[in-house]
Amino acid sequence: MPTNTTRFARSLLSASALASALMLAACGQGSGDAQHGGGPGGAPEVSVITLAPQTVTLTSELSGRTTAFLLADVRPQVSGIVKARLFTEGGDVKAGQTLYQIDPAPYEAALASARATLAKAEANVQTLKLKAGRYDELAGIDAVSKQDRDDTQASLKQAIADVEAGKAAVRTAQINLDYTRVSAPISGRIGRSAVTPGALLTANQETSLATVQQLDPIYVDVTQTSAELLQLRDELAAGTLQGVKNGQAKVKLLLENGSTYPLEGMLQFSEVSVDQGTGSVTLRAVFPNPQRRLLPGMYVRAVVDRGTSSKAILAPQAAVSRDAKGHATAMVVDNSGKVQARALTTSRMVGDSWLVTSGLAAGDKLVVDGLQSIQPGATVKPVPAKTAAPAASAASAQN
């Protein structure tokens, strides 16, 4: 007959077995729930966004340098000694302003000599005119020979020609005298002087005396591949891009210190040339420069407005992955709740999203979260993502 101690031991064993069975049942139920994803029907939940057309402003950031709008080297057109320099280095000058004064004394003497020669020729013409008139009358009564009359007429014509040559000599002497005042060929800012008073100058010498540059407006020359330029023109012709008119686009400028230049410029597509060695295209933008803040030779970055696309499809970076070959792919959920893999073609970044040119369309439900637990063909439960889709009107793309 069992004792009390034996009955107590048997009761403990029964309670322990019951607890173990309950724990195993609970574990089995939890494992089953985990395998079915916790969603209705066992379908895992994924976060999706519904794609819609966006309005995107496309831009290109290109490096380049500033160039003077007009540039002219100052050179003497007559020889002589510099008597004075009449400008401040680094200052602004006006077209026609005298910059240097060359010693005018020899040219004044040459002008005086030319005027005297002209006066002598004019006096000779008067004498020959009177003589030719008398010889005409005398030849009419045979008082002089016709040969003498013809010789007098020829001498008169030669004297008239001497007068014209004298006038030309006076004009040349006057021009040379005027050239002793070396003037600014254009308005702009002048650099340092290469000569000082007392220097000997030679007419049309190779070394310039100074350089004048017009800085307002100013050019910015940037480079772009010819393929990108052709693509831009094709997009404009097809109507994909809008906002660029008359072959010109707006340009913003980023300076070397990272600041933004406050005034906008215009890109002139007509002023392009293709470098046969590199295949690059030189684009020239014109910027107003009233404060002379931009100086020739500065390194800048031009942000070129390439137009606006009103039907752009944007895909967040988190939703786009790469396959083994580096091709962009994404997952979408169809109307039946099944996952589809899409091969994408992307062109550039727009903020934190990719601009998709093919592979996605408006209305597609793009998976943005939960990609690790799904495969193409799997049934899922799509739920709206907590993060909104990219803003439509504020999007701006750069390449």
What's the short story on this structure?
The chain has about 400 residues and is α+β, with helices and mostly antiparallel strands.
Secondary structure elements and pairings:
Elements: H1 4-35, E1 45-50, E2 54-74, E3 80-85, E4 92-93, E5 98-102, H2 105-140, H3 146-178, E6 181-183, E7 188-190, E8 200-201, E9 210-225, H4 226-238, E10 248-254, E11 265-268, E12 280-287, E13 299-316, E14 321-322, E15 328-333, E16 339-343, E17 345-350, E18 353-358, E19 365-369, E20 381-384, E21 395-398
Parallel strand pairs: 1-20, 2-21
Antiparallel strand pairs: 1-19, 2-9, 2-13, 3-5, 3-8, 4-7, 5-6, 7-9, 9-12, 10-11, 10-13, 11-12, 13-18, 14-15, 15-16, 15-19, 17-18, 17-21
Would you write up a description of this structure?
- The protein is an alpha+beta fold.
- The protein is built from 4 helices and 21 strands.
- Helix 2 packs antiparallel against helix 3 (146-178).
- The tally of beta strands, per DSSP, is 21
Q: How far from one another are the termini?
A: 94 Å
What is the mean pLDDT? 83
Helix and strand content put the structural class at alpha+beta
How many helical stretches?
4
- Low-confidence parts lasting 5 or more residues at pLDDT below 50? 1-40, 391-395
Largest sheet: 11 strands, mixed
* Beta-strand percentage range: 25-35%
* Overall CATH class of the largest domain: Mainly Beta
- In angstroms, what is the radius of gyration? 45 Å
CATH homologous superfamily annotation of the largest domain: RNA polymerase II/Efflux pump adaptor protein, barrel-sandwich hybrid domain
CATH topology descriptor of the largest domain:
OB fold (Dihydrolipoamide Acetyltransferase, E2P)
Oligomer: single chain
- Number of structurally distinct domains: 3
Helix content: 25-40%
